[in-house]
Write a structure and sequence with these properties.
globular, alpha/beta, GTP-binding, 14 helices, 2 domains, Rossmann fold, binds guanosine-5'-triphosphate, DHBP synthase, binds zinc ion
């Protein structure tokens, strides 16, 4: 046991720094870089980073494709920052909101060859901080001096990243609901400092039988505001009703807003959808994959509650596949087709066509 923060804890700290616009330092196998999130970097700090060396703007291959920039790698594209490029230039490359009104972005000089591991890691950090997936990265020669002098968070990635997230149950209490008075809400806290997730248990489902279950991803707009752009609100309430009628079951409310990109990025995606792009194209233009969710979280919560088999309420075959792969046996898929209307018809059709959802 040591007082000093470990790698997971330093990464949590680094995510907050990036959100606040404070650069961080990443090291791996003798290479050291300073990293800032494109979205939050100020002009003053950009100038400071230029004093260290020649920065690149790291973006995802998805975003590079939209910008017609060569990625030379399947994990990251590194655009050389022109001498006169300021934060406005960086924002216009990272953020697609004005792509249509300013179609002539570029041409871009991208770096080829060399080690791009830290650039790729920096983008993964931005994604987990729910920021736009774009970073300004500069190689640093005098690590100790820079970090000690400026008090920046330094994270060494030499140790293999522990991909095995773990979640702890922190509290639960009785919660009578409209659909059933026998409700109980459980809170689970990930050990990497990310958002907590919830399980609504109704009745006292037997642990040795397949439980009627829903893995619901947070949708503030649909679940809370009653947005007509998606089917989330009706799916949430129908699932709770079905479990209530059966008398036993569990609904996981996973804080993976916007298929894991966060609400701010989802609103950026909605704005692109208003410009004519569909839900998948909008994610790609922003630099994200179609779906950035980690469904292992759902499986871990189910296991922690003592379940090993589910009758899963979903139209998404990926959820079924991921549950089976992560040790939760799906004995039956229970369709959940509700909430179709004029505003979300095209959205649901795109999910069926491009993401394999069952209509
Ligand atoms: N990025 C993005 N996310 C969206 C959009 N519309 C809805 N979402 C999010 O999509 C997720 C929908 O989650 P779910 O309903 O659990 O999942 P699903 O993949 O549709 O599968 P099932 O509902 O189980 O059939 C929520 O996190 C919403 O916030 C969109 O246009 N773009
Ligand atoms: Zn929704």
């Amino acid at each position: 046991m040591t007082l000093a923060p470990n790698q997971t804890e330093l990464l949590a700290r680094a995510r907050v720094d990036l959100r606040m616009g404070v650069p961080i330092v990443l090291t791996h196998h003798g290479r050291t870089v300073m990293v800032a999130a494109a979205e939050t970097l100020s002009s003053g700090r950009l100038n400071d980073m230029r004093g260290v060396g020649a920065p690149v703007l790291a973006i995802t291959p998805r975003r590079a494709e939209t910008l017609k920039a060569r990625a030379y790698s399947d994990r990251v594209a590194r655009i050389e920052l022109p001498r006169d490029a300021g934060t406005e230039w960086i924002a216009s490359v990272a953020d697609p909101s004005d792509d249509l009104t300013r179609p002539m972005k570029g041409p871009f000089r991208t770096r080829r060859g060399g080690d791009d591991g830290l650039e790729a890691q920096s983008i993964a950090l931005c994604k987990s901080a729910r920021l736009l997936p774009a970073t300004v990265v500069v190689d640093v020669s005098n690590t100790a001096e820079i970090a000690a002098d400026k008090n920046l968070t330094i994270v060494s990635l030499d140790q293999k990243m522990i991909d095995m997230l773990s979640l702890e149950p922190v509290a639960h209490a009785r919660l009578p609901l409209t659909v059933s008075e026998a409700g109980r809400l459980h809170i689970f806290r990930p050990d990497d400092g990310s958002e907590e997730h919830y399980a609504v248990e109704i009745g006292r489902p037997a642990r040795n039988e397949p439980v009627l279950a829903r893995l619901h991803s947070a949708c503030f707009t649909g679940d809370v505001l009653g947005s007509l752009k998606c089917d989330c609100g009706p799916q949430l309430h129908t699932a709770l009703n079905m479990i209530g009628q059966e008398g036993h079951g569990v609904l996981l409310y996973l804080n993976q807003e916007g298929r894991g990109i966060g609400l701010a990025n989802k609103m950026r995606a909605y704005s692109l959808q208003d410009q004519g792009f569909d839900t998948v194209e909008a994610n790609h233009r922003l630099g994200f994959e179609d779906d950035e969710r980690d469904f292992r979280i759902g499986a871990m919560i189910l296991k922690s509650l003592g379940f090993s088999a589910v009758r899963l309420m979903t139209n998404n075959p990926r959820k079924v596949a991921r549950m089976n792969e992560t040790g939760i046996h799906v004995t039956e898929r229970v369709p959940l087709r509700v909430g179709k209307g004029a505003h979300n018809q095209a959205y649901l059709a795109t999910k069926a066509r491009k993401s394999g959802h069952l209509l």
